[in-house]
Write a structure and sequence with these properties.
Dna Ligase, domain 1, 35% helix, single chain, binds adenosine-5'-diphosphate, binds magnesium ion, four-stranded parallel beta sheet, 3 domains, Rossmann fold, alpha+beta, 301 residues
């Protein structure tokens, strides 16, 4: 037996949030101190004698491990500083679940899709470009598309376009505002998708998300419904998790007439909806894995 884990951190944009408060309670039940910090509110210093990375009165450089619930969005500079801060903590030897490098891959929808494709996983045909003319060419090829923010979540800010004139106006507005255009073929899925939750190397729960329209995210009002975790779903979700290098994730899968297609692999997946339809104690499984990562290191180097 090694020495017990004494003091760990949870990086969260919502310290009082449903998921964060449950993770923190479970860690404290195990007699470890838990520092909940919003990475946006850290102060980082170079030189001098004060702690190098501080949140309120806490010195984050002496944590034994960090569980990343979510890194808040912001301007490009802010996000880069927040990610740099996590990278610096990791470089001091602090184990992470999920690792900053994996979070960077997962928040970028293009980067994720490319890695999935390279791993042989079916993904929707997608064109990513900075110019309206190229986006319009992709629209003509796919005919019915979903235009997504590169770094979005919860279905916010994404739109379905099937009219040529609207496509032209949308892309021109994107170009004028210097947005990257992520243009993806729309795949019919009957207003339902599948979310598979993976922890470590195990997929252990799945749910249908039933929407009232094509956006099937819980944030857009979709309802969770239990779904049998077949070995096909489990294997697919694990391959996605490994391709990105995440320790825990929710994988979004569409059932289409081309078979199962993956649209997204999330680095800060919530599980409030999933917990309603599964008996597995998700929080316990997450913290078990977190402590394993601290003791034995992450599976992903
Ligand atoms: N190519 C697509 N065709 C049809 N529906 C899609 C497509 N991509 C996404 N969706 C729908 O939109 C939802 C959100 O898309 P997703 O790529 O997972 O982004 P987010 O990060 O916002 O969750 C998906 O759960 C799915 O219901
Ligand atoms: Mg999603």
């Amino acid at each position: 037996m090694g020495k017990p884990i004494q003091r760990v951190g949870v990086a969260s944009a919502e310290p009082e949030g449903w998921e964060t408060s449950r993770i923190v309670a479970d860690i404290r039940k195990r007699n470890a101190e838990c520092v909940v910090f919003d990475v946006a509110e850290t102060v980082v210093r170079v030189g001098g004698t004060q702690p190098r990375i501080q949140y309120k009165k806490e010195d984050l450089t002496t944590l034994e491990g960090v569980f990343t619930r979510a890194v808040p969005g912001g301007s490009l500079e802010q996000v880069i500083l927040r990610m740099d801060t996590l990278h610096c903590l990791e470089r001091l030897g602090i184990p992470f679940m999920n690792r900053p490098h994996a979070i960077e891959k997962a928040v970028d929808k293009y980067y994720t899709l490319r890695l999935l494709e390279q791993a042989g996983i079916p993904v929707p045909r997608t064109t990513v470009t900075q110019y309206a003319r190229d986006a319009l060419r992709a629209f003509r090829r796919y005919k019915d598309v979903v235009v997504k923010p590169l770094f979005g979540s919860g279905g916010v800010g994404m739109t379905r376009v099937s009219d040529h004139e609207i496509a032209r106006r949308v892309f021109r507005a994107h170009e004028a505002n210097r947005y990257v255009m992520y243009v993806q073929e729309f795949l019919e899925h009957g207003n339902r998708d599948i979310r598979v939750f993976v922890i470590g190397e195990e997929a252990f729960a799945a749910m249908y998300r039933i929407g009232s329209d094509w956006k099937t995210t819980i944030r857009q009002g979709a309802q969770p419904k239990s779904c049998k975790l077949t070995s096909e779903l489990a294997e697919l979700a694990i391959r996605c998790t490994k391709a990105i290098g995440l320790e825990y994730t929710g994988v979004d899968i569409l059932e289409t007439n081309q078979g199962l297609v993956v649209t997204e692999v999330n680095s800060s997946s919530g599980w409030q909806g999933l917990q309603k339809v599964t008996k597995v104690d998700i929080v316990k499984r997450l913290v078990d894995r977190f402590f394993e990562v601290i003791i034995r290191g992450s599976s992903y180097r």
